[in-house]
Sequence to fold (380 residues):
Amino acid sequence: MTNKMTVERIGRFLFESDVPLVGFAKPQMDRAIEELIVKHKQKSQYIYFGDIAIEQRQNFEAVFPVCKEIIVIGIPYTSVNKQMQFEGVALDGFISNMAWEYDYHVIVKEKLTLLKEFLLSADKTIQTMIQVDTGPLIDRHIAYQAGLGSYGKNQSLMNERFGTEFYIGYLMVDRSFSEGKDVSKTNLPLRALVCSGCDVCVKACPAGVLSDDFEFDGQRCISYLTQKKDHLSWFERGLIGNSVYGCDICQKSCPKNCTKELIPMAYERQTLNRVSLENLLNTSNKQLMRQYRQTGFAWRGAKVLKRNALIAIGNSKSHKHLSFLETLLAETSDYLRPYVLWALYQCGDRDIINRCQACQKNYSDLTTKEECQMILQIVK
Fold:
């Protein structure tokens, strides 16, 4: 049958569609990764934005009961060119490269949709399900099982060609194209060999969440903190620096990422991944979401992004922001008010005592009162 679908045909189609990484995995549970997650949770290091129990993170049947095989794709991305990295205003807020300019969920889903249509062109009875960082399954580990990479010390998959900077998505299908081959048993080691003897990312991480033993204290990860909705402590705010969303320090410091293969032009960044902090805070929530709706960070919502912008201003400790913060204090929400007060204190506001005392008197929310009390204890 000339129209028979094979692993080779699928690989060629994806390559011609600017998808340089593809692998195949079986929907099989890996007990070792579940034990690792349990260990992280016991140490309060586990991070996951969903509410799914750990034992459900590898429940393939619950997600797609008829799944026989998983086609995993990897789409590489890169930082902006080195000349652009030093341009722009130093006080501007940082956005992770992986979330800048375009939403990778959309790009990866488009490629998987093309793959789905390609499969249907050979057999209209095929059933599929697209997954791009939206379900309970452990996408990174499925990609490892498909042979796309081994785990690096920065907790990302390390690919021989593209380092750790590539997006993951997969198509779950109700049949196998691997013709009896045990494609789920990758020949790659669990831990990337290229990381052996290298601790560049471990030393570069400002939060110290990485280790030579591939351990990861996720609760202190800067990228996680910028996405976390809960109130952030002073210590956590200090770690964030000028990041509005994400942190690429472990990625940018990785020697492999500095010498990796060139990526397809379609995925190259065209602009510097920086935003004006004051402009972001001056924009209404609706306008902000409209302005950045095509990016990969808008999903986190305006409230959290504005909170991070205030933290970035506070960490700048620049007097230039004082008048802006003073005006903002009178107009802001209960959620943001503690961070405005903190930023005023950080930037050297001489009237911070009177402001805190006034806020304690005029506002009833507990978080504002506690923030004021903390500042007053330090200043007085």
Q: What stands out?
A: The chain has two domains: 7-195, 277-380.
